User: What shape does this take?
Amino acid sequence: MATLNIPRSRKDAEALDLDDPVQDARKAFALPEGVIYLDGHSLGPATHAALKRVQEAAGKEWANGLIRSWNDARWIDLPATVGSRLAGLLGAQPDEIIVCDSVSVNLFKLAAAAMKLAGTRTIIVEESEFPTDQYVAEGLAGISGATLKRVGEDKGIDALRRESAVLIKSVVNYRTARIADIAAHEDAAKAGGGVVVWDLSHAAGAIDLDLTASGAWMAAGCTYKFLNGGPGAPAYVFVRGDLAVKLESPISGWMGHARPFAFDAGYTPRLGVARFASGTPGILSLAALDGALAAFDGVDMRMAAAKAQRLGDMVVARAQTLGLEVISPVDAAQRGGHVSVRHAEGYAVVQALIARGVIADFRAPDAMRFGVSPLFVRYVDVWDAMDALGDVLASGVWDTTEFKKRAAVT
Ligand SMILES: Cc1ncc(COP(=O)(O)O)c(C=O)c1O
Assistant: This one.
């Protein structure tokens, strides 16, 4: 194993926290006492600003403003204004993002539009891709009569070179956290005459993204993970500025219409990425996200991403010392904001950790995931969490029917 640049004692970890250039960001979070939260890659914690903004949107704008708030509180513009706040985090232009729907729906819209743009009837998805991405690809192929090609992990890029196709691909894999090379995939897509639809769900807020420099054409992503937008927070669509007008959303809802309140009979899409909006936006969720994004104000994503790498290195090193197999890349440059570790009884181990106040998560069949959201996770948190993992494994406290009983959500 390469020598990792990690603290060797709790004191070292404390020193790193004192030196942490993004340490102030933690103050934005309303974290419960006594909990070490290593699950921000699944559901980011509440921020004070998000809670305040929801209260304001519900208690004032809705309760007092009523329907007037669509105009007075500019609710109608929120999908675009919140989208523009995401631009810096994605390395995009403010008018290239619209907040709407879920990732699943947005992937469907983009993949359908991409198929038409490229004139292809082939959709590619990797077997290791997040399930919803695979299901959307399958569903779209089913209703469009396109051919679905499932390829092995990281084989999408070769398939793109071979034929014109639409590839749906995560920038950071949900299980391994392996980072895909956006520019290399875009080059392959250009060579084969295809398009990549990127899923940024595990990437935004964890790695230093530059969609413009990487040459990305289109992407969707969620906001409830590293962006801390709240449970079920709306997703977003990114389309490179000059491409949006060439694309047709298959869900031509009125919010993507150029003049929704003209009540025209026919559909005229808006000019830019906003054509991918479909129906009425969920204002309370948008307000929460609007507030949550304030946590990133003044944060240099290069520094935040570097911190996530170093925190991840700590998990890698300690897990290896405990004799566990790390299924995430050991090389931090290839890894996003979480580390996955294999254990046959990983579910029960994670439940035993949660009972001790260390919240991580589990992905079937055997991956324990430890998220290292750089804005609020401290070096001492990872140090203590790994101590707890060592204790749980050494003592065998995980080995009970209670901890093995699977809940609906893992
Ligand atoms: C990579 C990835 N894509 C998509 C989703 C889910 O998308 P949604 O529920 O917003 O449709 C998740 C959820 O964890 C995910 O990890």
User: Anything to note?
Assistant: The mean pLDDT is 97. The longest helix spans residues 301-321.
